[in-house]
Structures are given as structure tokens and as C-alpha cells.
Design goal:
Blueprint (H helix, E strand, L loop, with lengths): L19 H13 L8 H20 L5 H16 L5 H19 L1
Helix pairs in contact: 1-2, 1-3, 3-4
Amino acid sequence: MAGTVAVPRALPSAEHVVDVHLVWERQVKKLDAMDLGTADEQTFQAVCAQIAHLEDLLLSTPARTLEGAMAQIRRVMTILAQSDLDEREQHGLRLALATLAKLRRA
């Protein structure tokens, strides 16, 4: 239509940006919560592969928000808790996460 001017849409503010890390984190939590005790080997392997894929995305993609960075740290903490690594690293990550949470509220 002649005489019509296209007005560019405003970019969303930082508080309205959804970080994909939060989506990946929710997906991993759902998979982690599955009871695989009676699952066949194929199902077990498929769930493990999906978790590994989501963890790769979560931990190798830069976060866009503070919440996304916190999701990355939470996943690292979960991985560390499942291994025999030193409690010192787990404690350090818990402190970092607590600091990020405080900064987010400030």
C-alpha cells in the first residue's frame, strides 16, 4: 500500500529474553527423573544419548542471561555430584551459584 511506513519492532528488553539454557535444563531434568530401572537397553541408551546431547548444548553454548549461566553452573554441579571429584570443586560451584543468585535479585 502506497504511503505506508513500516515501523521496526522494538527489541525485547533483557528481562524479556528467554535463554535457551533454561529450556535445555528443563529437558535434562525431565529425562533425569525418568525411572529407567525396567527400561530395555535400547530405551536406556536413547535416554542417555539425549541427556548427553542436551548437556553438550548446555555446557558448550554461551549463555545470554544470568539465568542461563546459572543453569550451566547447576548442570556442572549435578555432573560433579555424580562423580568422585573433590568436594572443594562442588563447594566452589555452590558459592558461585549463590553469588549469582544474590546478584540477580539486586
